[in-house]
Design a protein that fits this description.
Helix 1 crosses helix 2. The longest helix has 18 residues. The protein has one domain: Rossmann fold, CATH 3.40.50.1360. Strand 9, helix 6 and strand 10 form a beta-alpha-beta unit. Helix content is 27%, strand content 21%. By secondary structure, it is of the alpha/beta class. The chain is built from six helices and ten strands; from the N terminus they run E-H-E-H-E-E-H-E-H-E-E-E-H-E-H-E. The strands form two sheets. Strands 1-10-9-6-2-3-5 form a seven-stranded parallel beta sheet, with helices on one face. Strands 4-8-7 form a three-stranded antiparallel beta sheet.
Length: 224
């Protein structure tokens, strides 16, 4: 499966590139999975400006921390604050039921995802090569039936998580990875310039239906 690369000079330009693709996906409508973490925040802010009507979209967290929805660590809170709050017509937000125990929350989220094919998925990249909450060497990487699984606390912020699986994400019609900063250069090299490996979970996620694009700033692309 081929990967297309877009390399920009700055992190702001990378965020704008991701935002343009998000805005286009919102205009088309359908099911969109969004990443958490700090990197996509600016892309969400810009996407809200580029396309203020997301009323034809169902937004799904690619992964979520098992915290209340108003917790500062919540990915859904990030999406609400940086994207939804600025929209004229918001999407339907499909939350992970984090009030439940992690295993039950994952099972409920997987049931909600039954029959769903993602039209677009925005994913990040950790310095260890993880994406969503799919971590190096984890048993969750071998899951081929479930659409979402629980992930025990193992990295900061040291909370349990629920994540879409490799198979769920790879079934998306379009996948865009966004990574910026020199600290992501080594992970980007392993994820996008080396053979797939369970040691680098992002290397395992590629669209089986359409295209996979990697958007990097020049610092993150230095190792490619």
């Amino acid at each position: 499966m081929t990967v297309d690369f877009v390399v920009t000079e700055t992190a702001e330009e990378a965020a704008l590139e991701a935002a343009r693709r998000l805005a286009s996906a919102a205009r088309d409508g359908g099911h969109i999975a969004l990443a958490g973490g700090s990197t996509p925040r600016r892309a969400y802010e810009l996407a809200a400006t580029l396309e203020p009507d997301w009323s034809r979209v169902d937004v799904w967290p690619g992964d979520e921390r098992c915290v209340p929805p108003d917790d500062e660590r919540s990915n859904l809170r990030l999406v609400r604050e940086s994207l939804v709050a600025a929209l004229e017509r918001p999407p339907s937000l499909r939350a992970v039921p984090t009030a439940l125990a992690p295993e039950r929350a994952a099972a409920e989220y997987a049931r909600a995802l039954d029959g769903v094919v993602l039209d677009f998925a925005l994913l990040g990249l950790g310095v260890d090569g993880h994406t969503a909450s799919l971590f190096p060497g984890a048993r969750s990487l071998d899951e081929t039936d479930a659409r979402a699984v629980a992930v025990p606390a193992g990295l900061p912020p040291w909370v349990d998580r629920v994540t879409m699986t490799v198979s769920m994400l790879s079934d998306a019609r379009e996948i865009v990875f966004l990574a910026v900063g020199a600290d992501k250069a080594e992970a980007a090299r392993r994820a996008f310039a080396e053979p797939p490996s369970r040691a680098t979970p992002a290397s395992l996620v590629r669209s089986s239906r359409g295209r996979t694009t990697v958007v990097l700033d020049s610092d993150a692309a230095a190792g490619l």
